[in-house]
Specification:
One of its GO terms (biological process) is defense response. Its main location: membrane. One of its GO terms (cellular component) is membrane. This protein has about 400 residues and is α/β, with parallel strands linked by helices. The protein has a domain of about 120 residues: Ribonuclease Inhibitor (Leucine-rich repeat, LRR (right-handed beta-alpha superhelix), Alpha-Beta Horseshoe). The protein contains 5 helices and 25 strands. The strands form 3 sheets. Strands 1-2-4-6-8-10-12-14-16-18-20-22-24 form a 13-stranded mixed β-sheet, with no helix packed on it. Strands 3-5-7-9-11-13-15-17 form an 8-stranded parallel β-sheet, with no helix packed on it. A 4-stranded parallel β-sheet has the order 19-21-23-25. About 35% of the residues are buried.
């Protein structure tokens, strides 16, 4: 009888907890966090909250962390295992329009904030950068403006930062190098200017394409970047000579520096017999002068190389034709002379790219690799001070 009594008592208790009219009384989520969620939703234009969207399901007549969620809070957030705190906000990309409330800093247990591919505008609240547990910040493809403040260094747990495709301006804060847990940065397609500060030590991916960065690449910027694998800085105003140390960063795999103003390059073979993980290099559409760097053929995994539309002169290094790994080669739009290495034109060779729009001879028009046609001889003679370019 005693066991039956406790069983009935348990059933009654469970029924009272799951009674929809008692959710507020049974609320377990922090009240300050509920207030923050209300402010978050209130800062968004109601007309942009479409029926069926995540925010449309945020109905505060029940506790946000109640479970199971059958009708309300069906998506857009997750809670800690004990259902007392919000630890993730990930909105669906349906075109929400509005600003980001500064009260977001009240969600101190937040690990992930992802508002990507919506229409948020205005500055990113400075209070956001005080969240101690935030690991992933993704605001990609919105209309956020303003600068990235030095206080970003307070995001001590941050591992991934994606603010790409916004309207951010100003220079990159020096304090970025304080973020020792940061693995990935994507600030592409903004209006950022100035030089690149020292990078944090555990960074593996850096993408700042299509901004207004300027100046040469400094060795001090990369002095701690021993884990950097992907470097994408195309479509900026970077200039100067590309020095050997850059291509010898120990973990580097992909380099994209196309569409800048680099005017020279020096390549050494991998240092002290060390291997290299370099797979792809794109230096196209710069003003690089001199000879095509033959030492690139010594990089054992290099499969894609583009130095197209620069000011290269002389012959194509024979080593390019002897490479066992190179499969894509774009050298078109330069002033290269002589005959292409025979290895590049071997019948049946699995190879793509272009050697066209140069001053080459013996590059058969029937070969796809030799298209488009070479420059007129008059242009080549002028480039070589009236001397034949052969």
């Amino acid at each position: 009888m005693q066991n039956l009594f406790f069983l009935c008592l348990t059933i009654i208790t469970c029924l009272s907890v799951f009674d929809s009219n008692n959710f507020i009384a049974q609320a377990v989520t922090s009240w300050s966090e509920i207030a923050t969620l209300k402010a978050f939703k209130s800062s968004i234009n109601p007309s942009s909250i479409k029926p069926g969207s995540c925010l449309a399901s945020w109905n505060f007549t029940i506790d946000p962390c109640s479970f199971p969620r059958r009708t309300y809070f069906t998506c857009g957030l997750t809670c800690t295992p004990d259902s007392t705190h919000i630890n993730q906000i990930t909105l669906d990309p349906v075109g929400y329009t509005g600003t980001l409330t500064p009260l977001i800093s009240k969600l101190t247990n937040l690990i992930t904030l992802d508002l990507s591919e919506n229409s948020f505008f205005g500055p990113i609240p400075s209070s956001l950068y005080s969240l101690p547990n935030l690991q992933t910040l993704t605001l990609r493809s919105n209309s956020f403006s303003g600068s990235i403040p030095p206080t970003i260094k307070s995001l001590i747990s941050l591992q991934s930062l994606d603010l790409s495709h916004n309207s951010l301006s100003g220079s990159l804060p020096i304090s970025l190098n304080y973020l020792s847990n940061l693995r990935r940065i994507d600030l592409s397609f903004n209006k950022l200017n100035g030089s690149i500060p020292e990078l944090p030590p555990n960074l593996s991916e850096l993408a700042i394409k299509a901004n207004s960065l300027s100046g040469p690449l400094q060795k001090s910027t990369f002095q701690k970047a021993n884990k950097l694998a992907v470097l994408e800085l195309s479509e900026n105003s970077l200039y100067g000579k590309l020095e050997p140390w850059l291509f010898q960063l120990p973990s580097l795999q992909q380099v994209d520096l196309a569409n800048n103003r680099f005017n020279g390059i020096e390549i050494w073979k991998p240092a002290n017999g060390r291997s290299s993980d370099l797979v792809a290099i794109d230096l196209g559409f710069n003003t690089i002068q001199g000879y095509a760097p033959a030492n690139l053929s010594a990089y054992p995994t290099l499969s894609s190389l583009s130095i197209r539309y620069n000011l290269l002169r002389g012959t194509i290094p024979l080593e390019y034709g002897e490479s066992k790994t190179l499969k894509r080669l774009f050298l078109d739009g330069n002033f290269l002379t002589g005959k292409p290495p025979a290895g590049l034109l071997v019948s049946g060779n699995i190879f793509s790219g272009s050697l066209g729009n140069n001053c080459l001879v013996g590059c058969p028009a029937s070969s796809q690799l030799c298209k488009p046609a070479q420059k007129p001889s008059s242009v080549c003679k002028k480039a070589y001070n009236g001397k034949p370019s052969t």
